[in-house]
Amino acid sequence: MHDDDLLARAKAWLAEDPDADTRAELATLIDTGDRAELTARFSGTLQFGTAGLRGELGAGPLRMNRAVVIRAAAGLAAYLGKQGHDDGLVVIGYDARHKSEEFARDTAAVMTGAGLRAAVLPRPLPTPVLAFAIRHLGAVAGVEVTASHNPPRDNGYKVYLGDGSQIVPPADADIAAEIDAVRSLNDVPRPTTGWQTLGDDVLDAYLARTDAVLAPDSPRTARTVYTAMHGVGKDTLLAAFARAGFPTPTLVSEQADPDPDFPTVAFPNPEEPGAMDLAFAKARETTPAPDLVIANDPDADRLAVAVPVTEPGGTGTDWRMLRGDEVGALLAAHLVTRGAHGTFAESIVSSSLLGRIAEKAHLPHEETLTGFKWIARVDGIRYGYEEALGYCVDPEGVRDKDGVTAALLITELASVLKEQGRTLLDLLDDIAVEHGLHATDQLSVRVEDLSLIAAAMHRLREQPPARLAGLPVTNAEDLTRGTDTLPPTDGLRYTLDGARVIVRPSGTEPKLKCYLEVVVPVTAHADLPQARATAQDLLAALKRDLSAAAGI
User: Fold this and answer.
1) What order of strands is seen across the sheet that includes strand 381-386?
2) pLDDT one-digit tens code per residue, 334-362
3) Which of 148, 347, 352, 415 is catalytic?
4) CATH number of 436-550: 3.30.310, 1.10.10, 3.15.10, 3.40.50?
């Protein structure tokens, strides 16, 4: 872009920018003539898709800011109007990140100005409370301002429709077209009053609904250590645990309260290395010893679970994070034992073990594309999960992943097993013997240059591997063409004898993600140590060979 054009765009943006912080930031960039930074902010627009918007905070159309949010809200309002929802209710929630409350307030103003009714949650609350509120209040849409577990510099804008599920095509493209049609912020009416700020009634209703997750007569004895990861989950989770009658979780005090700078973690994601270190330290010093460590991500729609393990030689206790696929299988087995009916659903990147559990229980099972926007839409869904720590255990209440109700259910299961003198690891062993050992892992590559991801995908498409980990690739599928059961998506799936690999770009982060699974037959508990060793060797070889094939 020519320098004059770049400066003209930046000055036009500055003239409309409603936020003093980003105005000052942009004015400095213009004054100093920082071409590289201006190009990075004005060489396009942040694209609205099925994940809504997500990006780094800052001035300009390629950053998250009030001007971008106002345009997104105006596009959503126009879309809702064309769907016949001229005066429908839009519920708006937000987390505790920088600018989240301002983005929520701007959204309410735009909806009100467009003739819709807007209601804002009373304070920063978990995303599942917003997903619940949409259905509970009969809204036509909902907006959650959150960047979930992204770095502190990011924020995002997640859109739900009236069924309480996140948007899917073609709604995303239709909303994006309406956003593009907004010419000037001066054309967007934004009254300063007229919307409703909800009281605690909606939160109380959500908490009352959490009662449905647990069996009425189940034991409630498992002790937990809990971290909110500097997010908004603490108060809601503690209230839900108190209602259920579980022992009060021991808090990781350094991470208990909201802090948009996430000072104790490199990334506020329980899956990231080091993120759980403080929680494990708290568990080691807590007496009586906890049965579980549980963690939410910052908007509390995900759940991480860790269990105590005896160190080699019996010298003490350490803690092991369970993989999302392990928690997914445990919750499924628990629901089967409780007599659940309905469809068990998962995304294609999650373990095939769920299908085996469902088949053995004579329950329907479906695979979807990645993301709860797809999982939650499965007809007759009773339970859905995704390997990235997302679990939908009460789809009638929350048609999305919910880290609070999932925490209740896994703690109930731990309590049931505790009464039997058993643990979650014992149940995982039983599941492996019954269905085969399903071991999963992930090769995840974070990049600064997004072209590296496109190059890796191109290389794999042009030169698909014939063998991985010494196993022949029996089927190589390019998922951009779709399948009999899946719409097209940017991904590759390789089927091997006793293994499966899926490669896809992340939808929310600058990462290439490779999902690996191996299945090792097991006939008795005594076979498990050797089966696990075999599985780990295969997973390591898959990582090595796939990395070489992709050139990453």
Assistant:
1) 365-368, 343-347, 381-386, 390-392
2) 999 999 999 999 999 999 999 999 999 99
3) 148
4) 3.30.310
